[in-house]
Sequence to fold (540 residues):
Amino acid sequence: MTSNLTANVLKCGAAMLPLLGLVAPVAEARERKADVAPYIEIQQVLVADLKDGSDVLTYTSVAAGIDSSIQTRNAEAQVNLRYERRFFYQDNLGDDDIITGIARGGVQIVPNVLSLEAGGIATRSRVDLRGEAPSNTVGNIDNVTQVYSVYAGPNLSTQVGGLDVNANYRVGYTKVESETTGALPPGQLPIDVFDDSVSHSASASVGQQPGDLPFGWAVGAGWEREDGGQLDQRYEGKYVRADVTVPVSSSLALVGGVGYEDIEISERDAVRDGNGVPIIGDDGRLVTDETSPRLLSYDQDGIIWDAGVLWRPSRRTSLEARVGQRYGSETYYGSFGYQPNQNTALNISVYDTVSGFGNLLNDNLANLGTSFSSTRNPLSGELNGCAFGATSSLCLNDVLQSAASSSFRARGVNGQLTYNTGGWNTGLGVGYARRRFFASQLGAVSAVDGLVDENYYANLSIGRELDIYSGFNANVYANLLDSGFANAPNVFGVGANAAYYRQILPRLQGTAAVGLDSYQQDGFDSELTASALLGLRYDF
Fold:
């Protein structure tokens, strides 16, 4: 969950590991393997508000999806995609369409030299940290919106003489639908919601591993830009830097770098009425004044530096940790990976980046490998908060905690643990995310300038095959949300669900699931919802 600069700093160190004896030998070429499983489902669902026994909702769901994993000598991809149509029986509820999924893939155009990668996600995000925090998104729900994001781009990695040459480019698009925030505390005004953005990221570096010289070196440059549709917001960052890697032993190296960075974030004002009050459009967003001059909300340039260690005592353990100066203050980031065997993997990352909503979502996707497991809420069909892989994992809580339009500085820590043994499949994701927003004091969203929001979260997924015909999955989640607004309440959400699967006929599977979800928004009545489901699934 690093920025383009941070990711390339880590790559500069990682590229020098082979001659330090810190990495495993190159793996043999993958065997050709394809697993494509399209399916259809029909489900009957009941949702009951336990705080108000008279509020009971039933609906029928029809869904179609595909789970696929493809691995060949020069390509790999994984797709988990689902479309669902909900048919409600209540007169005050219209039928609902939901698309959810996550996909990552890559192809070697020139083996071990030039590759092309892509990714995409369709999921739900909270709109405002001060509002409701429903996890079972059924019926007339507030403060939840649909999010779509895709990216693609080439990567180059080759040698020219004794020099390592690396370059990459990525273009991405992110779209957030407009939804109401619902009830907010007295005196609290809704935030301006992200609309859409196009993001670009490019970098290049050249370097040399230790050998001819007693140390490794690399010089590189990069550029990032995100153009948002809302208030014509623009993020642009450029950097150049030089890095060195000094081997201390066969498993330890000292690393450091210095460079120059220039980041600028700007926006336009909103259209205002005769009293100077910003006008809100039919979609709930501020109306952009296209004739307004650009208003600067963040401008930081100057020398950046960092120093740290690379440690790899075995092929199963790796650590990189750095401390330095960036964004006008101290910065800390790094990663830790531990895979004692093929059934267990622990990944921890500490990140610090300045970004926008769309760019950070693309960064998260790009950091997820092409081999992962993603679970769904068995009652709503939507993706749970984390996807787990052997060498990389992804928890989206840091970016999907709210869909504010303004750019921000994001700092935090994520940890993911996967443990698969004896028929059990377990994934645990925990983390802390902190964002500090930037906005012009002369613009329509000046109230969020300097605002700091925080999110503490945990997601646990457990599954097991009971026999060749049946199995179960269970999920538990909890999150604590602090919006940072004065006099605004914290919001605490917690829930659990479980599902039992049974093969009835070849390719035909029956499902029974139950769930309990609750959230507490200070100053409002708490919510407690119970759900139950019966369904059939046919795999083609």
